[in-house]
Specification:
- This protein is 13% helix and 66% strand.
- By secondary structure, it is mostly beta strands.
- Strand 4 (92-108) and strand 5 (116-135) form a beta hairpin.
Length: 196
């Protein structure tokens, strides 16, 4: 049996050292950006007025607190407050008030020092909905219920200053995880992120 020579050991030793050194540099570089906190707030409002028929409007507020635990990966706790109001005289006069408390994974697709930073998010949460109003002049008793919901969204951040980003996001929450409810709860929000 042929004995391996010293060059064999040196070549493999050097390869192993380069591999572990490259992995350590990569991990240290990625973990250097870990530990950053992000506070974000968003807002959207839309209204429709139907001449001589009625009107409707939707207002959405969101506040989130996130933690970057590895590179561009972030865990965020978010609270959304949504009011949907419809008034059609003689037909419908309703208010739906949703409060969603969620935990989300946000994955950035570009380094945080990039000017343009797209991302996507997914998570789950608790929906608390209060529905009240009347249909065809008949008042419906106020109803409240709680349901689990899935959260999905895509967005983009514009890194305008060291500690600030402008944030634009399209997201939806799926009542009971049903994909058919995605269009009912979809919105586009704009807001601001602050890092500390």
């Amino acid at each position: 049996m042929k004995k391996p020579n010293i060059l064999f050991f040196l070549a493999h030793g050097l390869s192993l050292w380069l591999l572990t050194h490259a992995a350590a540099v990569l991990l240290l570089e990625r973990s250097a950006s870990a530990g950053t906190m992000e506070f974000s707030a968003g807002f959207s409002y839309s209204a429709s007025n139907y001449v001589d028929v009625g009107s409707s409007w939707t207002r959405r507020l969101s506040v989130g607190l996130g933690y970057y635990f590895f590179g561009e990966s972030e865990i965020e706790f978010e609270v959304q407050d949504v009011v949907d109001r419809t008034q059609i005289p003689g037909i419908e006069d309703t208010t739906f008030h949703d409060q969603v408390y969620s935990l989300e994974w946000i994955q950035g697709l570009a380094p945080r020092d990039s000017f343009v930073r797209p991302y996507f998010k997914a998570g789950f949460g608790q929906l608390h909905r209060t529905a009240s109003g009347s249909y065809f002049g008949t008042t419906v008793p106020t109803d409240t219920y709680d349901q689990l919901t899935g959260i999905f969204g895509v967005g983009i951040r514009f890194h305008v200053y060291h500690a600030f980003s402008l944030r634009f996001e399209g997201s939806t929450y799926l009542i009971n995880g049903a994909l058919s409810t995605a269009p009912q709860n979809f919105s586009v929000n704009s807001g601001l992120s602050v890092y500390f």
